UniProtKB/TrEMBL annotation:
Intracellular or extracellular location(s): Membrane
Regions crossing the membrane: 6-26, 47-66, 78-95, 134-154
Alphabetical keyword list: Membrane, Transmembrane, Transmembrane helix
Family affiliation: Belongs to the TspO/BZRP family.
InterPro entries: TspO/MBR-related_sf, TspO_MBR
Main localization, broad class: membrane
Membrane protein topology class: Multi-pass membrane protein
Name of the featured protein: TSPO protein
PANTHER family per the UniProt record, alphabetical: PERIPHERAL-TYPE BENZODIAZEPINE RECEPTOR, TRANSLOCATOR PROTEIN 2
GO cellular component: mitochondrial outer membrane
Length: 166
């Protein structure tokens, strides 16, 4: 009883772990790649991203706790809703290494798959806990912007053909 706080805290912190590791692993590559890319005028400043992800990871982590709690923990009923959550979280964490390596095609494929998983997850969560689903709306909105941005950056930054110079 005295440690009931550990579950909501653990679920809330979990998304931050992968986000931090992605940043840490790619902290040198992303600025190098990112600065060279042609970006649209509506691209948010780089300093906004860590703030946005901190808020989004906190909301998604707590939302996952609500789903886990409402389904009675790791029960058979939790396999699909939490499985979708885990899968989207893995794709979320996979995006920075692709982008950090300037592999824009893989970053685009990743984020398009991520979008689909998040929508499916939210649909599966809606009947379980509407508050948890609503906590995911800012994340889905940010992903929509990030998807448009990734598409635009991918289109505007075609890879140079071997032997061609700028």
């Amino acid at each position: 009883q005295g440690r009931m706080w550990a579950y909501p805290v653990g679920f809330t912190v979990l998304p931050h772990v992968g986000g931090f590791l992605g940043w840490f692993i790619n902290r040198k590559e992303i600025p190098v790649c990112y600065e060279k890319l042609k970006k649209p005028s509506w691209c948010p400043p780089r300093k906004i991203f860590p703030v946005a992800w901190t808020v989004l990871y906190t909301g998604m982590g707590y939302a996952s706790y609500l789903i886990w709690n409402d389904l009675g923990g790791c029960s058979s009923k939790a396999i699909v809703p939490l499985g979708l959550y885990g899968a989207q979280l893995a794709l979320n964490w996979a995006w920075p290494p692709f982008f950090g390596a300037c592999n824009l095609k893989m970053a685009l494929i990743d984020i398009l798959c991520l979008d689909s998983l998040v929508i499916g997850m939210m649909c599966s969560w809606y009947r379980i806990n509407k508050v948890a689903t609503l906590l995911m709306v800012p994340y889905l909105g940010w992903l929509a912007m990030a998807t448009c941005l990734t598409i635009r950056i991918w289109k505007d930054n075609p890879k140079q053909k071997p032997g061609k110079s700028e």
